[in-house]
Amino acid sequence: MRKSIRRIAAATGVLMAGAALPLVVTAPAQASTADCTAYLSSKGYIVGKKVLTVCDDWAHSLGGAIPPLPCMQPLERLGVKASHAEEACNRAQS
Question: Which of 8, 23, 40, 53 is at a distance of 20 to 30 A from 89, taking alpha carbons?
């Protein structure tokens, strides 16, 4: 009886872990875009389609390996202060 309960518990654990894996794998990219836009919004910037696109593109790029200039420059052209753009880009990559 105990062995069957252990087997059922083990099988349930494996199923739960398998079901949760896609949520764990996809969450960081979504959160990174949200972190970038939330930071800019908290600094008083209007987060529209262009800012969202920059943050989202950077969050899904290989930007962590290079300085955040490709992310910062478009934000600065939209009127974001350089230090705020850098922090937002860093948050997109976290």
Answer: 23
Cα separation values, 42 from 21, 24, 36, Å: 31, 26, 10
Average pLDDT over residues 7-32: 52
CB atoms within 10 A of CB 89: 26
Determine the Cα–Cα distance for residues 47 and 35; give it in Å rounded to an integer: 12
Cα–Cα dist 39/34, whole Å: 8
For the chain, first and last CA: distance in Å? 48
Give CA separation, 54 vs 40, 64, 79, in Å. 12, 15, 13
Sequence length of the chain is: 94
